[in-house]
């Protein structure tokens, strides 16, 4: 647990504790927990719906298999993504994609409700749905979505976009596959399941919604970081990664002085915390590794270089 980044570790703890509390509070029927009825995401036209459920539902789970799979994926991929982005950006991404997944699920349920209602009431318009929903509150309150899967699928997407060519083993495949193909395959499976299966109790649209929100968020961030790249003084992505992995920001300015032998020498005004030779050498090594990633990709790193990168991020 000491090697798990702070946000990933706390998300694991909160989800597990919430599930234990859910078990202690017991069930209100053969298939539902009392706490899930309170904090799970209800259909927005149902009487039990509350706006805070768009946030709380992602910390609720429906059973042991559900939470084990989600927490394993969060640990496996969340650690890597958080080390690259940092805790604040990672937490914002996780929560935003979880809420986005919930909004997708709400939209899918609205379409489903309209299709079912219009098949029984020909000529029904969307404006009439509120009246029908009020008369069907007992049924609609059973439409409850729980689980962190939407946010987890967004993290899988982030890993695939950060390290598209990183090879990973997926059981039961006998050979490793590239992360980008892994993500594409998962998205295709969810899309097929959403279209081909009904009533399986899995929120496939929420999974896809988390990935869609994550995709556009990452694309937006990349445009912000890369804006003006190559022709301005804006730092590129790897300059920011150097600051993050270095652990300390160099707040001083770089001053160039002209000497008699027509050469330039640079003088660095460094923080008090970066005065030892050991820290300077360590920072130089991290800079070299990050430059290598920029030029040749993450796959070009040796095993020792990858380990150095992650070791430095934990300091």
TrEMBL record:
<keyword id="KW-0812">Transmembrane</keyword>
<dbReference type="GO" id="GO:0006508">
    <property type="term" value="P:proteolysis"/>
</dbReference>
<feature type="transmembrane region" description="Helical">
    <location>
        <begin position="66"/>
        <end position="85"/>
    </location>
</feature>
<keyword id="KW-0472">Membrane</keyword>
<feature type="transmembrane region" description="Helical">
    <location>
        <begin position="143"/>
        <end position="163"/>
    </location>
</feature>
<dbReference type="InterPro" id="IPR022764">
    <property type="entry name" value="Peptidase_S54_rhomboid_dom"/>
</dbReference>
<dbReference type="Pfam" id="PF20216">
    <property type="entry name" value="DUF6576"/>
</dbReference>
<dbReference type="Pfam" id="PF01694">
    <property type="entry name" value="Rhomboid"/>
</dbReference>
<protein>
    <submittedName>
        <fullName>Rhomboid family intramembrane serine protease</fullName>
    </submittedName>
</protein>
<keyword id="KW-1133">Transmembrane helix</keyword>
<feature type="transmembrane region" description="Helical">
    <location>
        <begin position="202"/>
        <end position="221"/>
    </location>
</feature>
<feature type="domain" description="DUF6576">
    <location>
        <begin position="277"/>
        <end position="314"/>
    </location>
</feature>
<dbReference type="GO" id="GO:0016020">
    <property type="term" value="C:membrane"/>
</dbReference>
<dbReference type="InterPro" id="IPR035952">
    <property type="entry name" value="Rhomboid-like_sf"/>
</dbReference>
<dbReference type="InterPro" id="IPR046483">
    <property type="entry name" value="DUF6576"/>
</dbReference>
<keyword id="KW-0378">Hydrolase</keyword>
<feature type="transmembrane region" description="Helical">
    <location>
        <begin position="92"/>
        <end position="115"/>
    </location>
</feature>
<dbReference type="GO" id="GO:0004252">
    <property type="term" value="F:serine-type endopeptidase activity"/>
</dbReference>
<feature type="transmembrane region" description="Helical">
    <location>
        <begin position="6"/>
        <end position="26"/>
    </location>
</feature>
<feature type="domain" description="Peptidase S54 rhomboid">
    <location>
        <begin position="50"/>
        <end position="220"/>
    </location>
</feature>
<keyword id="KW-0645">Protease</keyword>
<feature type="transmembrane region" description="Helical">
    <location>
        <begin position="175"/>
        <end position="196"/>
    </location>
</feature>
């Amino acid at each position: 647990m000491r090697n798990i980044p702070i946000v990933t570790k706390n998300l694991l703890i909160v989800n597990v504790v919430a599930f234990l509390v859910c078990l202690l509070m017991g069930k209100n029927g053969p298939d539902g927990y009392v706490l899930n009825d309170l904090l799970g995401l209800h259909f927005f036209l149902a009487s039990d719906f509350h706006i805070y459920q768009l946030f709380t539902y992602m910390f609720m789970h429906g059973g042991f298999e559900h939470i084990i799979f989600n927490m394993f994926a969060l640990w496996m991929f969340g650690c890597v993504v958080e080390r690259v982005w940092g805790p604040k950006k990672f937490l914002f991404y996780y929560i935003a994609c979880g809420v986005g997944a919930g909004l997708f699920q709400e939209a899918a349920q609205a379409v489903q409700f309209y299709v079912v209602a219009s098949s029984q009431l020909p000529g029904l318009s969307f404006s009439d749905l509120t009246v029908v929903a009020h008369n069907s509150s007992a049924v609609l309150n059973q439409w409850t979505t729980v689980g962190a899967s939407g946010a987890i699928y967004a993290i899988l997407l982030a890993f695939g976009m950060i390290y598209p060519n990183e090879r990973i083993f997926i059981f039961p495949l006998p050979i490793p596959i590239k992360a980008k193909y892994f993500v594409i395959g998962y998205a295709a499976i969810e899309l097929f399941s959403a279209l081909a299966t009904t009533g399986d109790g899995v929120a496939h649209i929420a999974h896809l919604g988390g990935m869609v929100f994550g995709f556009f968020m990452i694309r937006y961030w990349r445009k912000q970081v890369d804006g003006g790249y190559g022709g301005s003084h804006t730092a590129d992505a790897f300059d920011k990664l150097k600051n993050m992995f270095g652990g300390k920001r160099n707040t001083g300015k770089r001053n160039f002085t002209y000497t008699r032998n027509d050469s330039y020498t640079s003088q660095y005004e460094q923080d008090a915390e970066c005065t030892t030779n050991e820290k300077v050498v360590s920072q130089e090594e991290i800079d070299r590794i990050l430059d290598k990633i920029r030029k040749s990709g993450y796959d070009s790193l040796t095993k020792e270089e990858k380990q150095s990168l992650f070791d430095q991020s934990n300091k």
